[in-house]
Specification:
By secondary structure, the chain is of the alpha/beta class. Helices cover 48% and strands 15% of the residues.
Length: 101
C-alpha cells in the first residue's frame, strides 16, 4: 500500500472523531452559526448551544443537521447529545429527530 494513501486515510479518520460545542453567539461581530457551518465543512460534528429562543438557531441546526441545546444545559442533556452524535456517526444519513433542549 502506498504510504501517502495511508496518511490521507489517517487524516480523514481523525476528522471524523472531532466534536465541537459551539455557542450560537460568539461576540457582536462573530456568528457562532457561521463558525459552526465552517467547522462542519471540515468534518467536525457540531452541538450548538444557545440561550436564545428565536427561530434562526433552530432552523440553522435543522438545515445543517446539527444538534441544538438551549441553555441552561444539564450534564445529562450534554451527555445525551454527545451520545446522539456517536449514533449519528454510525449512521450519517439519518437526521437528528429531536432538536429540543
Amino acid at each position: 500500500m502506498y504510504v501517502g494513501n495511508k496518511r490521507q486515510r489517517q487524516r480523514e479518520d481523525m476528522r471524523l472523531n472531532v466534536t465541537s460545542l459551539c455557542d450560537v453567539r460568539l461576540s457582536e461581530k462573530e456568528s457562532g452559526l457561521e463558525f459552526a457551518g465552517w467547522l462542519q465543512t471540515l468534518g467536525t460534528r457540531i452541538v450548538l448551544i444557545t440561550g436564545e429562543t428565536d427561530r434562526e438557531p433552530r432552523e440553522f441546526a435543522d438545515k445543517h443537521n446539527m444538534l441544538l441545546l438551549t441553555k441552561p444545559v444539564s450534564p445529562k442533556q450534554l451527555k445525551a447529545a454527545l451520545n446522539a452524535l456517536v449514533r449519528h456517526t454510525e449512521n450519517p444519513q439519518s437526521k437528528f429527530s429531536d432538536n429540543a433542549s
